[in-house]
Design a protein that fits this description.
Layout lengths: L14 E9 L4 H13 L6 E11 L3 H13 L3 E6 L5 H10 L5 E6 L3 E2 L3 H9 L5 E9 L6 H23 L9 E5 L13 H11 L3 E11 L6 H22 L6 H7 L1 H14 L7 H20 L17
Parallel strand pairs: 1-2, 1-4, 2-3, 6-8
Antiparallel strand pairs: 4-7, 5-8, 6-7
Helix pairs in contact: 5-9, 6-7, 7-10, 8-9
Length: about 325
């Protein structure tokens, strides 16, 4: 059954929502910055942040003490702590079980919504009952080295693809760095799902909801600092997309799938990305090799079923 049509004459009224933070080993300083940003966001009239759920997998002693402290200071904060990491899906499902309100904004603990991002997402997801999820636009601070330039190209392609599909009304994929989801479009995720955003978006789309992208809502993310870390990350993502395809029967619409489903549109998107910054062409060979390697590894993972991606290694910029 499709969701009901929106009534343009009806005011939004008070819209309550939850922010869910998925944490896996972040420091107290990182979490403090994120929580402070969430709590100080100036929301549009009619919106209320009713709960902040922090699902922490295997937090350190210092992080556990910090989370207990912030929870005691703000009754909206609920901390769910596990002694061992069980994977992000366990965290996502815990957030869904403890949500309050009509919407949930999921954010990774190593990401940082820029000022206004949460407000932009809430306004967009609440604007029409047919909207099931709205993803933010990931950005990062490039260092200028080869790896950083490859990552910048891949994210530029990602955001350009998401924006184009948003305008065409063809998106069924949500980015999990920061995404606002209508509560009634949510469902508990299977424990072995790797790409939670792709599954959430695909499921909501299958129920008739629109999946949107907000260019205005920016979220700063951490990215792999080495090429082989990037290949492993892309391996997991490509494996996860194939997994969602098998579970939901619909392939997540990204540039990779567009190369098969609509090559002309894929080439058009790539052309726009290169035209916007011609120097990107210099790193295309490296990006292509990395993507091919990741694709072959992901294919091998599919042929020999594995749960290696359910709980994955986190790569941070300070790792050496």
């Amino acid at each position: 059954m499709s969701p009901p049509e929106s009534d343009p004459t009806k005011s939004i009224g008070l819209e309550r929502f939850t922010v869910g933070i998925c944490s896996a080993g972040e420091s107290p300083q990182t979490l403090a910055r994120l929580i402070r940003g969430v709590r100080t966001e100036k929301l549009p009239p009619g919106f209320e942040l009713s709960r902040i759920v922090i699902a922490a997998g295997a937090p350190s002693g210092a992080t556990s003490a910090f989370l207990r402290s912030v929870a005691s200071e703000d009754e909206r904060i609920k901390v769910i702590s596990e002694d061992e990491r069980k994977g992000k899906i366990d965290a996502v499902n815990s957030i869904i079980e403890n949500k309050v309100g009509s919407y949930v904004a999921f954010v990774n603990a190593d990401a940082m919504p820029l000022p206004g991002a949460l407000s932009a997402l809430m306004l967009k997801v609440a604007s029409d009952r047919r909207v099931g999820a709205v993803s933010a636009s990931p950005v990062f601070r490039p260092s200028g080295d080869l790896n950083s330039r490859v990552v910048e190209l891949l994210w530029a392609i990602h955001n350009a693809s998401a924006l184009t599909l948003n305008h065409l009304g063809k998106s069924n994929h949500a980015s999990d760095e920061l995404v606002a989801v209508r509560s009634e479009a949510l469902v508990s995720l299977p424990y072995d799902v790797v790409n939670d955003g792709a599954y959430i978006g695909g499921h909501a789309s299958s129920k008739g909801y629109r999946i949107l992208f907000s260019e205005e809502a920016k979220v700063e993310i951490e990215v792999p600092s080495r090429i082989f870390h990037l290949v492993e990350q892309r391996r997991r993502i490509l494996f996860g997309h194939a997994q969602v395809w098998k579970k939901l029967g619909t392939l997540p619409v990204t540039l990779e799938s567009l190369l098969l489903l609509n090559p002309a549109l894929a080439v058009s998107i790539l052309g726009k990305v290169m035209a916007a910054k011609p120097s990107r062409i210099l790193v295309v060979p490296v990006a292509a090799i990395a993507e091919i390697m990741a694709g072959l590894l992901a294919m091998g993972d599919r042929l020999a079923p594995t749960e290696r991606h359910v709980v994955w290694k986190r790569y941070r910029n300070d790792e050496r």
